[in-house]
Amino acid sequence: MKFFVFDIDDTLYDLKDPFVMAFEKMFGYLPHDIDDLFLDFRKYNNQIYDKALNGQITMTQMCNYRAQKSFYDYGIILDESSAQKFQRTYESVKNNITVNKHILDLMDRLKSNNIPMGIITNGPTYDQNMKIDYLGLRSYFDPDLILVSEEVGFHKPDKAIFDEMKNRICHKYNCPSPEIYYMGDSYDNDIVGAKKAAYNTIWLNHRRVAPLDLSVVDYHLTSYSSISILMDIF
């Protein structure tokens, strides 16, 4: 029996969209290099995100760090107060996020073919659940197959969170050998982690990051539009 599990951030929706909205709302303009600034913002986020998840630093410290460091690289000086203001603005526009149309087409196909869907995502339980609601996707997912790292106590790429999903599937669907497909944008967190748990991995590499080892990637998609090739499988 087939099952399909998604990441949320930068998979179900494009993370750049709320960043761009927040920047324009706070500063009143968009720089020509906003795409590069966003990638820098993500780079600094990824440097210390695990520390925030593990409780070594607070989420506020992480948010201040990624904003101050990335904006500084582009000549914008943010003090701590301004960094926190940007974070509040960033949070305030997240209710405007929209699911990518190619993702939605895939989800409609999965739903019509009665393939159960789930989520494995890192982050705070409340925030990640609100994103599902903002995207209007709650009805697509089996509520027992929504795993948020804060709630379950493990975070990607730990194999334990992927094993927890497999255990829930086996128990609920009485399926000892489920065929699980997992789609995510992060090579390290999503793809390497899922492959350790013997999932079929779908790397949505729409940022076109150079991989270290494609042997852990079963399906390598370099754009949202290339999701269409999955229609033949499901």
TrEMBL record:
Record InterPro entries: HAD-like_sf, HAD-SF_hydro_IA, HAD_2, HAD_sf, PGP-like_dom2, Pyrimidine_5'-ntase_YjjG
Xref: Pfam families: HAD_2
Molecular function GO labels: hydrolase activity
Keywords in alphabetical order: Hydrolase
Family matches, as PANTHER family: PTHR47478, PYRIMIDINE 5'-NUCLEOTIDASE YJJG (PTHR47478:SF1)
Protein name: HAD hydrolase, family IA, variant 1
Species annotation: Peptostreptococcus anaerobius 653-L
Lineage, highest ranks first: Bacteria, Bacillati, Bacillota, Clostridia, Peptostreptococcales
